[in-house]
Amino acid sequence: MGKAFGAEEFVAVATSATREAHNQSHFLERLRKEAGLEVSVISGREEARLIFLGVSSGYHLEDRLAIFIDVGGGSTEVSVGNQAEPVYLDSLKLGAIRLSGLFMVEGEKGPVYPEKYAQMKRSVRTEVVRTVQRVRSYGAKTAVGTSGTIINLYEVAARNFNGAVGKEPALSLTKLKKTIAMLCSLDLKERREVPGINPERADIIIGGAAILETLMEELEIDEIKISERGLLDGMLVDHLSRIEGFPSHQKMSVRERSALQLGRSCNLDEVHANTIVRLTLEMFDSAKEEGLHHFGPKERELLRYAAYLHDIGDFISFSNHHLHSYYIVRNAELLGFDQGEIEAMAYLVKYHRRKSLGRKSVDQEGLDLRVQKMVMTLSGFLRLAEALDRSHCGLIDHARFINATDKEAVLEVAANGDCQLELWGVESQAKGFRKTFDRDLRIRFRMSTATDGAP
Hints:
Elements: E1 12-14, H1 16-19, H2 24-35, E2 39-41, H3 44-56, E3 66-71, E4 76-81, E5 86-92, H4 96-103, H5 114-127, H6 129-136, E6 142-146, H7 148-162, E7 170-172, H8 173-185, H9 188-191, H10 205-218, E8 223-226, H11 231-241, H12 254-265, H13 270-289, H14 297-309, H15 321-331, H16 339-350, H17 359-363, H18 369-388, E9 396-402, E10 408-415, H19 420-427, H20 430-437, E11 440-447
Parallel strand pairs: 1-2, 3-6, 6-8, 10-11
Antiparallel strand pairs: 3-4, 4-5, 7-8, 9-10
Helix pairs in contact: 3-11, 4-10, 5-10, 7-8, 7-10, 8-10, 13-14, 13-18, 14-16, 15-16, 16-18, 18-19
């Protein structure tokens, strides 16, 4: 469909079902081969953020806080935020399909009796305790619901108890309870014939209703506004915000903010981290100009954040801190990144201390060939940069590749002081460099001049 309209770029994400699928990698590979789609698997909190972006961008909130609820098939996303940004994001392993599967026997087509529905609500109440406590603490007065399940519940309530769908759609808790009582009293065939219902949702709508009703009760929401905006709208807003010239371009991006917050929460040495970022990117850019690699802006951006976060494991223990850093990056649910990007950054962080990295080592990680190649190549720049700031004194002003041939690459290093330790460190990387780039590494050293400045 997209190609029929002349679309040149496709952005696709996968949510709850793929996040938890045992055959995730096989599924994504088939999509890549058969549909030509690169699908990013996003975390639950990232899904909540994108839904927030999509819905909040259609409301005039300014500084007022609102609660956003999206009841999906396998998960429910809850967020709190104002017009500009979320202050709380959460993803619950509760969904209309998941809850229905737990309490409805396969093939069950009869009414849902009060005892069973009460059991469903008790299960939801247990799962949402922590979320409810956090959301309540913000004191938000407005609530907005999105997703097919909530919209369909509103449409059923409107058709059966209001007479029509309103121009400013909202669903009161009172009307929701009446709608649920009616739906539970009917068998599956009768539910499919209820005015306003989507027949394809008839078998799972009661599970979704139990989630929404419980959340509204626990959060003391008397009425929830209905929005048709959601994840897709959030993906568009997020994608546009990364384009230079978009109105919010000058603000710190979600990726920058989430990386900065993670680093500072781990007492990161930011001076050293920013030095490593500067040197790593200078080598990445100059190496590309010299034909040492063919990676582009997306890989450069991941390298940038990995370089910034490479030492965050220090606050646990310096010994094996690269493994601690790997674990933190892998499990921090960095906002703005999909799971594949987080995985790539985690491995770049993990391999920033080794003198060399061969394909055998990366093969053992189970990464696909494209990610293996990226990790092998880009971690080489990160290791060189780490060696060039071994003393954490910022002695190296520049490190750029020049005059590369098929046999060797020259790394020009400009320093502002005695850097024998750094030069020794980078020379120790020569063997690993040859393994990665199939060229000898030669160092050309010079003292910085007055015209040398930070790039």
